[in-house]
Structure to design on (270 residues):
């Protein structure tokens, strides 16, 4: 088994609506691997083949351990990860309101490590292949079996509005458009996404600037980015990056690394 980090898009048309991508993270000769990942409007389920969780963000290889399953909700802060020993990890990256289509009664306020997202037989099969087509079809199939449509018109309309009017958005206007109070709107977001409406919008806007700089127009300077996405000024833009990444915008982009072919952008630490 060789070291790899690969991303894969779902093939099943139903799953594509709710899952952004999968990735496979394998480090057979790893001793200590540390990295930082940053706030995102997506959330994830990580499956470790043989690991135990020492503390939040720190997993340790144990050949005798059963697979470790971790749900990571939408986060407002940097997540510091430490992987000790060999790594064989499968991750599902869900769109907002994606995981709700397959799993119910989750608590979105914190990490979940005591929930069976996949059974033992499914995990054995998933960890037995590195073939992209087989791997993707297996995950699609496992999720499709669990599909139960989750609908929440308040959240669906809100998320669509935030993404389409991200640089010119206010919570007051959204609640007025929906005909509900800000309190009711925030209760829906906190219950099903784990963050407030305002914080979700801030994370979406931050991620849009990251995507623009990384993939759309790398030559765009930070002053232009701040103006394009309607930040108050360069100082406000810098403050947002400091809060979300613990770095200035320049340091964040200079030190980070894109992994795979999607939007996984981590700060790897030697």
């Amino acid at each position: 088994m060789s070291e790899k980090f690969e991303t894969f898009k779902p093939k099943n048309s139903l799953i594509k609506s709710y899952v952004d991508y999968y990735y496979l993270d394998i480090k057979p000769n790893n001793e200590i691997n540390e990295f930082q990942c940053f706030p995102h409007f997506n959330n994830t389920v990580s499956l470790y083949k043989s690991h135990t969780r020492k503390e939040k963000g720190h997993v340790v290889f144990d050949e005798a351990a059963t697979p470790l399953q971790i749900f990571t909700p939408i986060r407002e802060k940097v997540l510091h990860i430490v992987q000790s020993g060999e790594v064989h990890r499968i991750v599902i990256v869900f769109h907002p309101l994606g995981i709700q289509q397959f799993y119910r009664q989750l608590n979105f306020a914190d990490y979940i490590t005591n929930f069976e997202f996949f059974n033992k037989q499914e995990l054995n099969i998933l960890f037995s292949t590195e073939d992209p087509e087989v791997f993707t079809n297996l995950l699609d199939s496992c999720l499709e079996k669990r599909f139960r449509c989750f609908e929440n018109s308040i959240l669906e309309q809100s998320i669509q509005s935030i993404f389409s009017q991200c640089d010119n958005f206010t919570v007051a206007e959204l609640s007025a458009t929906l005909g509900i109070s800000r309190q009711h709107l925030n209760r829906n977001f906190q219950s099903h996404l784990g963050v407030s409406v305002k914080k979700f919008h801030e994370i979406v806007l931050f991620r849009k600037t990251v995507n623009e700089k990384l993939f759309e127009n790398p030559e765009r300077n930070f002053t232009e980015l701040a103006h394009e996405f309607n930040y108050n000024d360069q100082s406000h833009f810098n403050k947002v990056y400091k809060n979300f990444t613990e770095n200035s915008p320049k340091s964040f982009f200079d030190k980070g690394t894109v992994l795979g072919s999607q939007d996984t952008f981590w700060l790897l630490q030697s």
